[in-house]
Design brief:
alpha+beta, five-stranded antiparallel beta sheet, 7 helices, 5 strands
Length: about 180
């Protein structure tokens, strides 16, 4: 497996999760924004790199950080500017543990929505959500999708992304499929 170009992935990450979004979400949670070597933006970025590389260890993630894989995410940190980032895993490990799961969920949701906006060529798409699971995303008119349902009660909802960037979510519709 070849190594991806981290600078391109970092550009995409920064385009989808800007610092302002993270600061806003942290404020909404009553969490103080940490700006050190392992602030929320850096920790989330390193966690993503760990997932993208498969079985990457904490030590490997820290080495990526030491060697600049986080780019300018913490440029305002004195230790980063001076190139004094420890290769020990303790700081990263503690920062991961302090990162609220709710913040990770909200950032993930924000990323998915922004990536859809970047990746859908016409800027319009509809995602069908059945029983709280996304079952299909359709990017062409007539924006329909067919699937087989098991007997029982189901809830269907549609989320639409318009070319203007606006997101529209339908009211959930509950129905029963008879055997």
């Amino acid at each position: 497996m070849t190594s991806p170009d981290w600078s391109n992935l970092l550009d995409l990450y920064q385009a989808t999760v800007c610092r302002g979004v993270l600061e806003y979400l942290e404020q909404q949670m009553g969490r103080k924004t940490r700006r050190g070597v392992y602030g929320a933006a850096v920790v989330l970025w390193l966690m993503m790199l760990q997932r993208l590389q498969g079985r990457t260890t904490l030590a490997s993630a820290v080495q990526l950080r030491v060697h600049g894989a986080a780019g300018t995410l913490a440029a305002d940190c004195r230790r980063v500017r001076q190139g004094r980032i420890s290769s020990r895993t303790g700081g990263y490990c503690r920062a991961r543990q302090k990162l609220p799961a709710l913040l990770c969920q909200q950032v993930s949701q924000e990323m998915v929505e922004r990536l859809r906006a970047l990746l859908v060529p016409a800027g319009e798409a509809v995602t069908f959500v059945l029983d709280e699971r996304e079952v299909a995303t359709v990017t062409r008119s007539p924006f329909e999708h067919w699937w087989t349902l098991a007997p029982g009660m189901h809830t269907l909802q549609a989320r639409g992304w318009l070319a203007s960037g606006e997101t529209i979510t339908s009211e959930p519709v509950t129905f029963t499929v008879n055997p």
